[in-house]
């Protein structure tokens, strides 16, 4: 019989996506204590069934499959950017496919905005309206509010409209980082992702005999099977070595090895692979906290999973990655660099973000030191002068000049130009790390 904790989890799973959940209501409906309800809801949040949002509450969300970890729900976005819901609460459980920074003219902005996306934009009410009509949610940066009719439209479309005090660059960096963090987790394959479930796994019971072992062996081509008691708990393991020379009517309980090696579903693939090689075993039972069998992982399962990991492309890009990919050295002078200002590099005004400017200066300085074979740099002090705003689609020239360089210290002066006009300067002092 399922425990009260398991009953609550099953109840939460049965709720419609988007349903609100409260500790008090769960406790009342299922006749459990509020402490039990609270712990079960927290467990549901840990496994991705619900999301708790400040000033909104806890809602049932769609549990993401592991292969879709590069997507976030709007409820998760609110927590990431410390946002406030202005309208469209009924759509918080929905998943965003991509986000667009609205640092451009309205018609250009709408070319990138589509159903399921998130428009990150400042105090531009018309852009809010157009995005909602296109089926996109809206994240308003700079702490701005919006018009009441926009909020009503968001409620009608069931598309969230969210406000945050951060600027567009910071918000984009935070969302990118959240996706990147999940992608890193995605690459860690767990036993639960690859094991054969208990419904499909072959096993023996305490009351079985060696004759039953031969039957299961012939059906599965394996020679190692877990032995379960009446409560489906793994109490032993039996292999071909254990039955050699024994009568077929001999009880499995008499020949099995007690206290076998088992793993849990959250054990990493790397650990299981190492253990199988080290211990020389071909099958390991997978159990839950109460030692009940939930599956079996074989050596073939592990090998297939390891081969699959090697074939997977590595994906995920932070704002820093975007900046680095945009910086290239000139053919005629490798100590001068150029970069194009793309939408992800701008603030809510459509000009180059101060944070991105700093990243460009640091990246160009780092590459200069590498070219001069001085080593990698660790920034110790950075003074930046923002002289003129830089609009979107600008092509920048970045000119770092090494002023001083010792064995472990460097001082670099950097000038940044747009169309031959000086738009910013920086003085960077850094420690040098030998490669």
TrEMBL record:
InterPro entries: CBS_dom, CBS_dom_sf, Diverse_CBS-Domain, DRTGG, HotDog_dom_sf, Ser_kin/Pase_Hpr-like_N_sf, Thioestr_dom, Tscrpt_reg_HTH_GntR. Keywords: CBS domain, DNA-binding, Transcription, Transcription regulation. It comes from the Bacteria. The keyword Transcription applies. Residues 196-254, 256-314 form the CBS domain. The keyword Nucleus does not apply. CDD domains: CBS_pair_DRTGG_assoc. This is DRTGG domain-containing protein. It comes from Ornithinibacillus xuwenensis.
